[in-house]
Amino acid sequence: MICVSIGRGRHRHVMAEHRHLVQQGAELVELRLDYIDGEVNMRRLVADRPCPVIITCRRERDGGKYIGGEQQRLLLLRSAIAEGVEYVDLEDDVATSIPRFGKTKRIISLHDFRKTPDDLDAIHRRLCGLDADLVKIATMANHPHDNLKILRLVSQSKVPTVGLCMGDIGTASRILAGRFGAPFTYATFHHERALAPGQLSFSDMTEVYHYDQIDRETDVYGVIADPIGHSLSPLIHNAAFTLLKMNKVYIPIRVPRENLSQFIDEAPELGIKGLSVTIPHKESVLKKVTKADGAVRGIGATNTIVFDGKERIGYNTDYRAAMSSLENAIGQPGDDASLRGKTALVLGAGGVGMAIAYGLVRRGAQVVLADGVAKRAKQLAERLKCRWTEWSARHGVSPDVLVNCTPIGMHPNVDETPFDKHHLRPAMVVFDVVYNPENTLLVKDALFRNCKVITGVDMFVRQACLQFKLFTGQDGPADLMRDVIKRAIAAAKY
Questions:
Q1: Is there a catalytic annotation at residue 458?
Q2: What average pLDDT does the segment 121-146 reach?
């Protein structure tokens, strides 16, 4: 179950959002009294409530907005109990000041906005001893291990416990709470009105992650990055899992560089069966795989890990997807000879650039690398035995195939291009791996010059389908994935 937090200044807005959420399927809401302007009319808020409620009035020191007197705040909580609300949230230091009354259940809560303490078990035992029906512990995640600490606590507790990590590193704990036995998790009414750091919206929790369908048997997949940004991978993989009625969920996971090794070691305990790997981990994660296919060894980077027992198997679907896109545009899929002898200028020597340059060299193309960091282009060129050029000299190459593997032109910097339009020729194939937006300035310029164009959406869907096959053993639903990503990109414009 998902508890949706409502924090509005006026009673009528709180009540309207409450009704709307119930119409959208919400079964439990939290009414944050500390957000209400002026005097709170408790009876008006809860008399005709359309679903059960948790009444919360959070002080500033606990992450709330209440600035009035403490006795007045406690009186509000007592009045909620007198009105017979389903739950009241009591901080640990005031729990003994408000006795049990009627049928109202007591949530004894603790919030730590700085860290996830090491003595969670001791804290939990203390909260349980305060006449708790439920315990809520919300802590700040400073590294991914904090998610595992809090979810272990939830799974081992005999008293129903809602354990969550805050912040973007803690997102995983919010989505996986139910898998580990939490009676509910928290979401916000709208993603722009999060009431706690890292809180997801009710629509994301229900429509993207399908939270209420997650159980102890759900297989977990995800994308690891730092920063995690607004990855579209969860949208398309979860849509595919839903279409094929698979008990699986795909989540975004922020993993800082220094925490990568420990996270990979602990991933199976979170239920993780497979990972998409992106910036900045594609190269460094190779140290943690136990097996790797030939492409991964040749490229020196992986973007996919499958956990199979004690094995961690690395793959590179960027490479296969990019070659498939190019061969389809130039000749026939699987036609390696279609690229032989062509001059290919690859802009960017990062993870994707490495994969595409490797594939082009293997297919006999005359590859030239250019990167804003000349040293990186030179090192990759030496390893692949191809040419490189300074970034400032890239327009002097005159390629048959131009591939942009840099983030230039990516949202929100949509007015930028990595290659001047005056150097585009109608005979060129222009491939931009940026997929948000699909029609980058480079793509628009190339279409205007009558070049043959491959967009990042094409490659993104192809690599996602390949990952889906590695994760599940079944072909990814390409048409669905393409539709989902295009709708998401279009929605992001508004």
A1: no
A2: 97
Query: Per-residue pLDDT averaged across 445-455, rounded?
Result: 96
The active-site residue out of 11, 18, 149, 282 is 282
**49-53, 104-108, 152-156, 198-202: range with lowest mean pLDDT:** 198-202
pLDDT in tens, 219-245: 999 999 998 877 899 999 999 999 999
Architecture (CATH level 2) of domain 319-454: 3-Layer(aba) Sandwich (3.40)
The average pLDDT across 437-450 equals 96
Of 111, 248, 281, 288, the catalytic one is: 111
| pTM assigned to the model | 0.92
Name every residue whose Cβ is closer than 8 Å to that of residue 160 and which is 6 or more positions away in sequence. 133, 134, 135, 182, 183
- pLDDT tens digit sequence for 294-347: 899 999 999 999 999 999 999 999 999 999 999 988 876 666 668 899 999 999
Q: Give the whole-angstrom CA distance, residue 193 versus residue 253.
A: 21
> Strand locations in 142-197, DSSP E?
161-166, 185-188
Strand 272-277 relative to strand 304-308: parallel, antiparallel, unpaired?
Answer: antiparallel
Q: Is 111 a catalytic residue?
A: yes
- Please count the helices (runs of H) and the strands (runs of E) in the chain: 16, 20
HSE-up of residue 179 (Cα within 13 Å, Cβ side): 25
What separation in angstroms does the CA of 155 have from each of 118, 212, 327? Answer: 17, 17, 49
Instruction: Collect all residues with Cβ–Cβ distance below 8 Å to 444 and sequence separation of at least 6.
Output: none
CATH architecture of residue range(s) 2-216: Alpha-Beta Barrel (3.20)
In angstroms, the first-to-last Cα distance of the chain is: 30
Marked catalytic residue, from 11, 18, 136, 281: 136
Instruction: For tokens 């029906």, name the residue.
Output: 133
What is the topology classification, in CATH, of domain 241-315+461-492? Rossmann fold (3.40.50)
275, 224 Cβ separation under 8 angstroms: yes
> In the numeric block, which tokens belong to residue 443?
């793509």
Contact 108, 92 (CB under 8 A): yes
The domain ranges of the chain are: 2-216, 241-315+461-492, 319-454
Same fold, 241-315+461-492 and 319-454: yes
Q: What is the mean pLDDT of residues 88-107?
A: 96
Q: What is the DSSP string of 472-491?
A: HSS---HHHHHHHHHHHHHH
Residue 136 bears catalytic tag? yes
